[in-house]
Design goal:
The chain is of the alpha/beta class. It has helices at residues 13-22, 38-48, 58-61, 78-87, 102-115, 129-137, 167-184, 275-289, 297-316; strands at residues 4-9, 28-34, 52-54, 68-71, 91-95, 119-122, 143-149, 188-196, 208-215, 220-226, 237-243, 246-251, 256-260, 265-269, 320-321. The protein is globular and about 55 Å long. Bound molecules: nicotinamide-adenine-dinucleotide.
Length: 322
């Protein structure tokens, strides 16, 4: 019998990725599944095992045998589901972004705090071993570059929907802003940005963003996000860190990093992407040990704050304070 009993809300692509990861962690198991498309919940129950599958998450929230829920739904449902889960006393792993607005992020953080539950935003990149190593190698970078460039998103992709998803910069940008903030070792202070709706003309959401953040410690971040085309040399995810005469480049979906210590250069490789498995391990371990996980609701709020400030800078042409 696993110690941590989980409910999965949203049994699509990412819900199933997490279910795969949990299947490899013996101290936890998914026992219940909810998806507004009941067939998706039933398919997950069949493939991953458990007790029941339902169309409505409330059934899971009211189940006293469930310790924690995974929220893997569309972005406009993140805040209401997380608030309901917190009020029901369930711990929460929530897929990114925490929510699409500051008000919703703050409401989630407040509900989590007053219920005393644990919430971990699923910023999988924090767990890639080479990201962690790069952070140790240059703890106070002077200049940071973060880029996430994808092929053009289809117009019928739900994440491109202005309400359900928010398009590329809002949907995925929080991954990049979170890692930039994690690597920076200082909070963002203000942002300049250019870009706009370049790959989906006429769409209400910004889809390309080139931003520069200054940090509280006076250091600088450059952030590029969009779906103009997949970078073949860098891969979709690319980070560069410079400071104290050292540098690191992370590329090949964060499986490779080239380090320079001022005299020697070397490259390290990981055989596969480990972020999903390690973030699941961290969530389960935090619950078992009764401690906060390495990422909190505040990190989710700050990642969204950076995205929204860059969006405002693009739309107004003016520097935005954070
Ligand atoms: N961390 C990553 O690398 C990564 C990658 C892709 C997606 N994601 C995130 O995962 C989440 C889900 O994305 P996906 O690609 O799995 O989408 P998806 O469309 O494949 O799955 C989402 C599922 O949620 C269900 N759903 C929507 N609203 C619901 C509700 N109110 N109650 C119950 N079920 C509901 C849908 O029916 C669907 O089955 C999003 O937050 C997305 O940004 C993260």
């Amino acid at each position: 019998m696993p110690s941590i009993r989980l409910g999965l809300i949203g049994c699509g692509g990412l819900g199933r990725v997490h279910a795969d990861c949990i299947a490899r962690i013996p101290e936890a198991a998914f026992c219940a599944y909810a998806d507004r498309v009941e067939a998706s919940a039933q398919a997950a129950l069949k493939d991953f095992g458990g007790q029941y599958a339902v169309p409505d998450a409330d059934r899971i929230f009211s189940d006293p045998d469930i310790d924690a829920v995974y929220i893997c739904t569309w972005h406009d449902t993140h805040a209401p589901l997380a608030i309901a889960a917190a009020r029901a006393g369930k711990h929460i792993l929530i897929e990114k972004p925490l929510a699409l607005s500051i008000q919703e992020c703050e409401a989630v953080a407040k509900a989590v705090e007053s219920s005393g539950v644990t919430l971990m935003p699923a910023f999988k990149m924090r767990f890639y071993p080479l990201i962690r190593k790069a952070r140790e190698f240059i703890p106070q970078p002077q200049v940071l570059v973060g880029q996430m460039m994808d092929n053009r998103w289809g117009d019928d992709n739900w994440a491109q929907d202005p309400v359900k998803g928010g398009a590329n910069v809002h949907s995925q940008g929080c991954h990049t802003t979170d890692i930039l903030r994690y690597l920076a070792g200082s909070e963002p202070a203000q942002v300049w940005a250019a870009g706009g709706t370049l790959t989906h003309p006429g769409h209400p959401c910004i889809d390309q963003c080139v931003a520069a953040f200054s940090l509280a410690n006076g250091h600088a971040i450059s952030w590029i996000q969009g779906d103009a085309a997949l970078g073949q040399f860098t891969s979709k995810f690319f980070f560069e860190i410079f400071g104290g005469g050292r540098s690191v480049q992370l590329y090949d979906r964060l499986k490779k990093a080239t380090f320079f210590d001022g005299s020697q250069t070397w490259t390290e490789e990981r055989p596969e992407e480990e972020g999903f498995q390690l973030e699941n391990r961290e969530f389960v371990s935090a619950l078992l040990e009764g401690r906060q996980p390495g990422i909190t609701a505040y990190d989710g709020l700050q990642a969204t704050r950076m995205v929204l400030a860059a969006d405002r800078a693009i739309r107004t042409g003016e520097v935005q304070k954070l």
